[in-house]
Amino acid sequence: MSFERLLSEDRLLFVFKVHNEMENNAVVNTPDRRSAKVYFLQLVKGNEELSKTEKRYCREKYIYDFELDNTLYKWGKSRECKKCKTTRYSDKYCEQCINLLHLQSLFNTWTSGNEIIDNFIHKLSSLPNYTLEWIPFDQFEDVEHLTKGGFILPHGQVELSLFMTKIKRNFCMG
């Protein structure tokens, strides 16, 4: 949201404060998340202290956070994504589609140094709900040196830098 660059620091702090007050008001005065969303949007519309641009920012930020929470916590109504046929909980996001698009855009920017491992990661990166990705060893911090030599990994299992993780971040509009 590039809106933040358009305002002075004082005005930006004011908008954040008003947004948070309206959000808290909506949460306290409604029985559920959907009602809170409707109430918040009504509060924004009726607020005379905010400019048209500031109101737009408040609406977009609230809806963005609302839909992101639906995706992250599997809140709301489940539906099938028309594109990838997996279950999604947001009107705006599909976790699986985002993961695939994100990783596909990065395929040519990395290598494990081993063509077999690279091909393996590429093929398995489309598993539903999971992502297999290579993380270079130099991106780890505070790695404890456990042992040396033989078939045992010198830095424990971390040295493989190959693991499966359920993605719960890196969302974009979709």
Explain the overall architecture.
Helix 1 (9-28) crosses helix 2 and helix 2 packs antiparallel against helix 3. The chain is elongated. It has helices at residues 9-28, 33-46, 52-73, 95-106, 115-124, and strands at 79-80, 87-88, 131-134, 154-157, 162-165. With 174 residues, the protein is mainly α. A hairpin with a 6-residue loop joins strand 1 (79-80) and strand 2 (87-88). The strands form 2 sheets. A two-stranded antiparallel ribbon has the order 1-2. The protein has 2 domains: 2-73, no CATH class; 93-165, no CATH class.
Distance N to C terminus: 16 Å
Shape: elongated
Structural class estimated from helices and strands: mainly alpha
Percent in strands: 5-15%
Summarize this entry quickly:
The protein contains 5 helices and 5 strands. The chain is mostly helical.
List the helices and strands and how they pair.
Elements: H1 9-28, H2 33-46, H3 52-73, E1 79-80, E2 87-88, H4 95-106, H5 115-124, E3 131-134, E4 154-157, E5 162-165
Antiparallel strand pairs: 1-2, 3-5
Helix pairs in contact: 1-2, 2-3
Fill in the keyword field for this structure:
two-stranded antiparallel ribbon, 174 residues, two-stranded antiparallel sheet, elongated, 2 domains, mainly alpha, single chain, 45% helix
